[in-house]
Amino acid sequence: MPSSYTSLLGLVLPATGELTSTWGTTVNTSLTQLVEDSVAQYATASVTSGDWTLTTTAGGVSNQARNAILIATGAPGTTRYIYAPAQSKTYVVINDCSDSSVVYIRGGTSSSYSTGVGIAAGSSALVAWDSSTSDFVTVAGGGNGATGAGGDQIFIQNGQNVTTSYSIPSGKNAGTFGPVTINNSVTVTVPTGSVWTIV
After folding, report:
1. What is the rounded CA–CA span in Å between residue 197 and residue 199?
2. Residue 85: which of 119, 144, 136, 41 has the closest Cα?
């Protein structure tokens, strides 16, 4: 019987008696290294020219989606997205863009992305996949939090153009500093019972 792999992190599950003389190599590369990746490894990508879809692979092989820390860099001049698998996983997301671009982490396939969590430039957040809402949620950290000189939590910043359709999650309110422009063919959906306030 051949080895199998765990469903979420793709860690090897050796079959009894299968790995004679190769056990060390298989465990080192398909278990030990991948556990370290999921706990402490980081992946970095420039989002200057486009969004970042995390690489995924079959079980037992390194990939970006398994890593614990995601660092977005560059100067896109617009909102960018990190696309991650829609499954149980936590990430520390660092927006290291050199301009004021917000980076969202979203889950799902190309036809059904979640709303995700936005992280302001210079901020970071610990996010987790919430199966009850089918979306990433902020567990801790900045998200679109306040920033300022010397680490002061003073200035909350947002963009001035809505360039991608967005639905405020049910049971949530949203706030934006105006003025703000919604691009043609873009919609902002505010569900019943929710409020979007522009001040």
Report:
1. 6
2. 136
Q: What type of residue is 124?
A: S
Which tokens in the block code for residue 108? 């799902």
- Number of Cβ within a 10 Å radius of residue 83: 20
- Among the ranges given (49-58, 109-118, 140-149), the one the predictor scored with the smallest mean pLDDT: 140-149
Residue 190 has pLDDT above 70, yes or no: yes
Q: What is the 3-state secondary structure (H, E, C) of the chain?
A: CCCEECCCCCCEECCCCCCCCCHHHHHHHHHHHHHHHHHHCEEEEECCCCCEECCCCCCCCCCHHHCCEEEEECCCCCCEEEEECCCCCEEEEEECCCCCCCEEEEECCCCCCCCCEEECCCCEEEEEEECCCCEEEEEEECCCCCECHHHCCCECCCCCEECCCEECCCCCCEEECCCCEECCCCCEECCCCCCEEEC
Annotated domain spans of the chain: 42-155, 158-199
Q: What is the pLDDT of residues 61-77, one digit of tens each?
A: 889 999 999 999 999 99
Q: What is the mean pLDDT of residues 106-126?
A: 84
pLDDT digits (tens, 9 = 90+) for 30-62: 888 888 888 899 999 999 999 999 999 878 888
